[in-house]
Amino acid sequence: MNQLKVFVNDLIKVSKFTKTKNKKLRIFITGIISNLIVLLDILIILSFTKVFSDDISINNFITIFLFENIYLLPFLVIFRFGCIYYEKINITKLRLEVEENLRDQLIEEIFSKGNYSSSDAYFYINTIAGQVSSFYSTLATFIGSVLQVFAYTIYLIFTDFNSLIILSGGIAILYFPTIYIIKQGRKTSHKTYLTSQEISEKIEKIVDNLYLIKILNLAHQELTNFRKSLKNYYDSTLVNIKLGSISAIIPNFLTFFGLSLAIVFLDVVKYITLDFIGVALRLFQALGVLNSNLHLVSAYHVYLEKLFLLEKNKEIVQTTNFVIDENIEDSIAIQVNNLDFKYFNSDVNIFENLNFSISKNKHTVITGSNGSGKSTLLGLFSGIFYATKGNVVSYSDKFGFVGAVPMILNGSLRENLLYGNLHEKDDNQLKTYIEKFQVFNNENEGSLDKNVSNKSLSTGQMQKISFIRALLNDIDILLLDESLSNVDNKSKENILNVLDSLDITIINITHNIDDYENIDKHIKIEIENEKRIVSYAN
User: Which of 88, 135, 416, 419 has CA atoms 20 to 30 A from the CA of 302?
Assistant: First the structure.
């Protein structure tokens, strides 16, 4: 009963997230088709039985009509397999529509709510959406198999009451291994989930630090660790598959084994008919499908739990903790008040009780070691992330951003410069910025209609285009995240001169503060005993 309660609660909760149209109708149609398949199975079994023997359990006007028109049998078979095909297509459409709808919702949730790390965002949009959609398709199949088991059982009981004893014994025997497999399946599913997460994290680490790993000759070490994770994932997945396979074959095994024992030792042949055996075999086949899907539905619980955490995040994240206030003190661009912050699905605060201000139209530099939370601060300043306690007040919502890795579209230079631009800009304005930032060595290279890509441009050129793109949006606050780390000294000096000439607020993450002379404030983040210490210097 506890397993059933968990299943029902999972179903109710997950339905809130999947707003796919006609979802219930599709599941209902699957149930109808499953019962239709049962009817066709019984009719086909009775027809085959009549061919070989007159000893059948039931005679009514339908079976009599069928026996008298045996030529209809091939059409029944065709219709049965047509129903099976439609059932599978219906379930597949349900899965795909749920997946599409859920991914759309999760994208919107991540854009609107914040506090998701990039790995969390990828995991939810890719993995969770896929697993939840599979849960629904499995659920539809599960409900269909439940109805089939019920229908076959009712038929056998009403045609041969002696079968009730056999069925009751068979179901009683099935109960205990089924419950055990479900419990073990949930454990192994959780382990599989954890190991798959571990593999994703290791892949991300290797890809992001490929050059460094090779240069430091750490490839063997990283490969060894990765292979250990793969082995753990393989082992847990294999155990899960074994449990699912066992749950699927147990009913059929017990059917054949039980019948063989009954025939050998109990002489039950005289109590059963050929159609009874045929329907009983179909019943226990349906029980196998039921068991298998029950195992899968139970295994999806670990992924559904992760989906339900989004509700927890909605309670924690208050979008009102980021405020745009044009009437803030004239000299202040951003005010941080009693700020605590932690990422989604984390119990550890990244920052605690931060209080400081960023001066308007000045240059603020943020330094700190990798992983100290510098980029997180930029997210809090701009409303990408929301404080879990306290708030951030900004005098403007006109932000620009330039990161360490420039984004270049496969399109014209004009399209790249105006990407995301909300204001009308003429070509002369674009050309003026191109000249100011010295993007090209000569004028002929800077044609606005020229197609560019990350292969046709140097790293420095791409970064300069990113700066121009940000400034063309008539911004008040420019956020820089190691944006000058990949440009040469001459270009760096020129870019800083252009920025110093502008009447905007600049907040700049860097590892090399010596590159900057005209700064107003230095925010330094240090990690001591796993706690972040934030200091401020003017």
Answer: 88
